[in-house]
Amino acid sequence: MLIDTHSHIYSEDFIHDRDEALQRAYDNGVKKIILPNIDSGSIKHMLDLTDAYPHLCYPLIGLHPTSVDEDYKEELEAIEYWLNKRKFFGIGEIGIDLYWDKKYINEQKDAFRHQIKLAKSHNLPIVIHVRNSFDETYQIVKEEQDGSLRGAFHCFTGTAEEAQKVVELGFYLGIGGVLTFKNSNLDEVISSVNIDKLVLETDAPYLSPEPKRGKRNESSYLVYVAQKLAEIYNISVTRVAEITTTNARGLFEI
Ligand code: NI
After folding, report:
1. Ligand 1 centre distance from Cα of residue 6 (Å)
2. Interatomic CA distance for residues 37 and 28, integer angstroms
3. What are the extents of the domains in the chain?
4. Is 112's pLDDT higher than 90?
5. Nearest Cα to 128, choosing from 95, 170, 176, 158?
6. Among 43, 152, 213, 219, which one has the highest count of C-beta atoms within 10 angstroms of its own C-beta?
7. 194 C-alpha to ligand 1 centroid (Å)
């Protein structure tokens, strides 16, 4: 059994074959899928899917950094409204993204810190989005880490030194399709990390692993990531599944 800890399978990309994609995931051993939220516009789609598949889909609630703009306080109010209304398994995805635009960097930092505090007060893990922003993101998590904060750096693609910093914070590394890319160098970085610190993810519909690279990603492709990890650690795929599933179960309490 595998757990996909990051999949936007509620998105429009699956409008024509969502049920089939979920069935393929299940048939490939992906028995639980964590759904990270984006903003107020994605909540209904995500929760509708959760309600249709309550034993397969587990929602998070949060405001994605690329959805942070001058109206971010209203967006945060919507997040808090839902957080107090029903059960979520974590706060995500949250963080800092400086790839597209640095215009709202201060708003992004404020929204990130605010949502970390929500996670603490609700005793929930956080799922962190980092893009061209490791130092800024790490600094805030480090300041906020009082021993009670837990979570994952989703789609980790950093250096061995950054991986070490994440582990020292008590956080997991979310590992997806990039691991299978030639020249990503991520296999070398990951071989320096204990597998007890990893959770698997697809980030569907993005970042399909080899041999599906370039196509729409889906949760069933998580097996390719598990296979690559088995090669890197020289253990069986079954063992990779056991360890990473235990890690994900512990982190999200599912
Ligand atoms: Ni995502």
Report:
1. 6
2. 24
3. 2-252
4. yes
5. 95
6. 152
7. 24
Q: Looking at the domain 2-252, which fold is it?
A: TIM Barrel (3.20.20)
Tokens of 178: 């990039």
Q: Which residues pair with 58 in a beta bridge?
A: 34
Distance 148 CA to ligand 1 centre (A): 24
User: How far is the centre of ligand 1, averaged over its atoms, from the C-alpha of 3 (Å)?
Assistant: 15
Please identify which residue in the block is written with the tokens 């393929």. 24
Ligand 1 mean position, distance from CA 60 (Å): 11
How far apart CA 170 and CA 57 sit, in angstroms, is 25
Q: What is the pLDDT of residues 127-175, one digit of tens each?
A: 999 999 999 999 999 999 999 999 999 999 999 999 999 999 999 999 9
Q: What is the distance of C-alpha 131 from the center of its chain?
A: 13
Ligand 1 centroid – CA 8 distance (Å): 6
